[in-house]
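Limitations

Structures in this collection are predictions, not experimental determinations, and the ligand pose is part of the prediction. Treat each record accordingly. The example that follows, with cobalt (II) ion as the small molecule, is included so readers can see exactly what is and is not provided: the inputs are given verbatim, and the output is the predicted complex.
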Amino acid sequence: MIGRLNHVAIAVPDLEAATATYRDTLGAKVSAPVDLPDHGVTTVFVELPNTKIELLLPLGETSPIAKFLEKNPSGGMHHVCYEVDDIIAARDQLLEKGARILGDGEPKTGAHGKPVLFLHPKDFSGTLVELEQV
Ligand code: CO
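Predicted complex:
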């Protein structure tokens, strides 16, 4: 069912510092920061030859990554995103196998303007999993 790794998301307490690390220390191509108010994050996209890294900074009072950063003050890996061809078919197949979908179970528009869903970390080895229809 899952296809390519679309991105790995890393929550960071200082977006400028993290961007500089990826750009200057690691020599990667980085985007300008993008505010995604619907998702409560500001994102910098790091382009790698085979995938992307998304640096996430909390945006607004109710950011879903604020708690994560409280527990991980220096930042950390927040989620991985796998591509699927048909997000509704993927969701139904996962539900059938007993996996839990976060939220109301309906896909939302993700950071790349495509439908996404998040799966419960407890069902996937402690890792928050995002599915993105491509
Ligand atoms: Co993501």
